């Protein structure tokens, strides 16, 4: 219980917002009555976070909680919660999400027990969240782990809030409840999963309800902005993002990027190599007038591609598109997405429901740190689904050093030293991928040991360059994809 309460407080990212403090004293005269605590909510408020405490525990004083907005009842949690969150789109169970109307709201204190002779001081902290202080208000729980480490997960899954389906108890194909996706992700051994239903964000209310129970997997708020000219996942936004590209609501993609940036959210172009057609409408990526400097990530491997072609490096994968953007000088991080639409489909092993796995080096297992890790880019894709198998790149130029995702600077003639690090990759072949015109001297690229380091280097021409690596199995199949080290990228 304590953890959960603390979790709710931290999970709403309220460190940035100053609460208003309302206090009062209760005596036996209040026994079996309701105290109404009014407070003003200004226009522009997006969410309200309430935390109530009192000093009457030793006297067995009990305070039940509820809330009325200017027009009526918003919920009642009795004595079962001491803090709660209400926003336009999601709310702590017991409370109703909906418009945060400006005007006078009333926190209701129900008082089933205040003993004779007792004086209890109560304190209500009420935080009003708006566009200035919203922080990570879609973070559903405290870090699942506070350790820095490699975490395995999936950035793309659908539920019954869009076109995700599964088999009902009576055997019918039905919109699939959100918990089935979380159960399947746990069964697949993932550390995190993002639910990214098409355009809507109604699943976020369900995730807020489920998160305290699913406290062994980090749940990331997402939605798949789905236009007729391509799809893109937006992560950690707490407000809607428009998707009607070309209409008055979303005249150009710049407007979408602005909405993403205003919410400190993150955007990833999905399955850009897939063709648009009757089978997948608007799936190819061809929006007019795109500014790729505002794109954080690209989904370079998307599973339906694998299921169709039984290879992850089919020409229609997102990898050629991504590498073309790298060549054009855009520092964009490659991630993966299962695009799971059927969490109960049987592929023979639960892990295949969430392929590929994206492995990120993050400061903790939490939404905020996983998404920060995407910004940093120390990330690789595990296509063969082998936990413990690792690829990493360390780069040095004199005193500068970095890993995958980092940018180093180099003058003409500088020697760039690269170390390709692998673990549990025996029998695989290391394949170097570089920006065009780059030659890297190297020796044997077969990985023979459980932990290996391959040193290589090249001389910078002072221009922009990038280097990354793949691992392939003995049949030549692509099994691991690293992100690049960037040289002289802005
Ligand atoms: Zn899509
Ligand atoms: Zn999708």
TrEMBL record:
The keyword tRNA processing appears for this protein: no
SUPFAM superfamilies reported in the protein's UniProt record: PHP domain-like
Domain of life: Bacteria
UniProt entry keywords in alphabetical sequence: Signal
Protein's name in the database: CehA/McbA family metallohydrolase
Record carries keyword Signal: yes
InterPro entries: PHP_domain, Pol/histidinol_Pase-like
NCBIfam families in the record: CehA_McbA_metalo (NF038032)
Signal peptide region: 1-17
